[in-house]
Structure formats: structure tokens, C-alpha cells
Write a structure and sequence with these properties.
Blueprint (H helix, E strand, L loop, with lengths): L1 H16 L3 H9 L4 H15 L3 H7 L2 E26 L2 E28 L2 H8 L4 E2 L6 E2 L4 H4 L6 E26 L2
Parallel strand pairs: 4-5
Antiparallel strand pairs: 1-2, 2-5, 3-5
Length: 182
């Protein structure tokens, strides 16, 4: 068990340090803020699939996680920081943590956007009573993804893969915190 925990910690640390070549090149010239990273994800989604604008128009709010690092060897973990927008206006910051158990090996980095369909779901998120469970289906974002997507239990989740490789068949859940902007 100790070896598994040590390997998990090492894998998570390695995953957090992994950068894509494009990221490394860009960071040499300019270090982006959290706001810039979030806006870059939104802009690239809209450029890749203009139909995503309909999702932004329907949602009352969205949480953008520009970089989530995930790693696991039997037991896994993931985490990332993000920003929350209500109809395009910044309203606070958020963190996501995830623990998973099951067959898994590897690490990956991805971005995630959670759209909130209504005020009730947004308030649950803001009050710390919001979790995404193993039964939630995230949509891997690609051209045309917005056309077939729909809200489920008040949310719609898009995942944008970045780097890494992970084999898994796990049970996991994501937990969030929210801190309102001042």
C-alpha cells in the first residue's frame, strides 16, 4: 500500500510538471494569467466550433478550468484551478479535486468547462454543495460537439484534451470549491 501511495504521489507530481512543447515555447515569451488562460480556452472553442456560442447563450454561467492535471496508478487524483463567469462577467474563482479508484495507469492534462443551465444549479455550485459523480457524462470537445450536447441535471461538461495518456476504468467524482470575487 505504501508503494502505491508513493507511486501515486510521484505520478501526480510528474503530471503537474508535464508541459506540451507549445506550452513550453509560449511560456518562454509570456506567462499568462488565469484570466488569459480561461479566455484563450473559450476563444479556441468558439473558433473550432462556432455552434458552441449557442451553449454559452443558453447557460446562466460557466466554470472554466484551463489546466487540470490527472494521474493514477490504481488510486488516482486530479486537480485544477478555474474561474467562474455569469453571462460573461467574472464572479469568482474555483478549484476542482478528484479522487478515483480502479484500474488506471498514467497521467494527462486537460481543460474543462462546466456550463450551468439555471440559477439553482449555479447556487449549489457556489455554496459548495455541487459534485460531478461517476454517472456524469463529459463531452470531449471537437467540431460539432455543441450540436449534439444537452444539459443533464442542470449541467453540461466539455473536456478539451491537451497532453498525456491514461488507461482507466474507474469510479471517481469531482468536488469543487468557490470563492466569490471581491
Amino acid at each position: 500500500m505504501r508503494n502505491s501511495v508513493a507511486l501515486l504521489i510521484a505520478a501526480v507530481l510528474l503530471c503537474c510538471l508535464i508541459e506540451t512543447p507549445a506550452e513550453a515555447l509560449f511560456k518562454r515569451r509570456h506567462r499568462r494569467s488565469g484570466e488569459e488562460n480561461c479566455q484563450l480556452i473559450i476563444k479556441s472553442m468558439k473558433e473550432k466550433d462556432p455552434g458552441i456560442q449557442k451553449v454559452f447563450d443558453k447557460a446562466v454561467a460557466w466554470a472554466v478550468f484551463p489546466r487540470i492535471s490527472k494521474a493514477g496508478i490504481g488510486i488516482g487524483g486530479a486537480g485544477g484551478n478555474g474561474r467562474v463567469y455569469q453571462k460573461g462577467k467574472f464572479i469568482g474563482t474555483t478549484t476542482m479535486t478528484q479522487v478515483s479508484i480502479g484500474f488506471q495507469l498514467g497521467g494527462q492534462v486537460y481543460s474543462e468547462i462546466i456550463f450551468f443551465q439555471d440559477e439553482f444549479t449555479l447556487e449549489k455550485f457556489k455554496n459548495g454543495k455541487f459534485e460531478l459523480g461517476a454517472n456524469i457524462s463529459a463531452i470531449v470537445f471537437d467540431v460539432g460537439a455543441a450540436e449534439t450536447a444537452g444539459f443533464k441535471d442542470g449541467t453540461m461538461v466539455f473536456v478539451i484534451p491537451d497532453a498525456g495518456l491514461m488507461y482507466e476504468a474507474t469510479l471517481s467524482g469531482q468536488k469543487f470549491t468557490f470563492k466569490a470575487a471581491k
